[in-house]
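Hello support,

Our group uses your service weekly, and this is the first time we've seen a run hang past the timeout. The protein is Redox-sensing transcriptional repressor Rex. I'm not sure whether the cause is the sequence or the server load. Input pasted verbatim:
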Amino acid sequence: MPEKSIPDVVVSRLPRYLQALEHLEKDGVQTTSSQELGEFIGISAAQIRKDLSQYGEFGKQGKGYNIHYLIHKLREILKVNRIWEMALVGAGNLGHAIANYQGFAEHGFRIALIFDSDPLKIGQKAGNLIVQDANQMVEKIRHHGIKIGMITVPASEAQAVADSLIAAGVRAILNYAPITLSVPRGVHVQYVDPIIYLQRMTYYLE
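Update from on-call engineer: The timeout came from a worker crash unrelated to the input. Re-ran successfully.
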């Protein structure tokens, strides 16, 4: 079924299902029900069944879901049954932390390139990578055919970095800078701003 026919809110829940299923599989669980899965992640069983039904039938009534099979299918649907190379722009504290994170590969991602415009950072190591000059970003990302970029620069630089990533052929951007990016149709942006989530939580505090 074409992705464009699936609401984005449904797609946004699929990684949560996949994460929960992978956790259950690591614990040695082989089958689960929509009820059990829903209790595990805080989503109703009816919603889970409705979301999964957008892509076909994965379980049998009374028998539930085979976890290994459903993991395989969700990875296929989310296209993480392969390794996606990524370019990281910004080699500050956050960029270094992300470059050192070891969990990307097991979920289908690998940081292949890291860039910065600071001469003091260029040539230094970040994780297993050498920080490269941001002036060479477009050329090198094009050469590697990378489609995913991560932005960890200050807000004042983020739009220019996004423009360069898009010029290089990147079509998916994970933006850690606290600014809304202007991007053309066909480029998907996800924002990671802890301040927004903290402010959302303090609403509920006394």
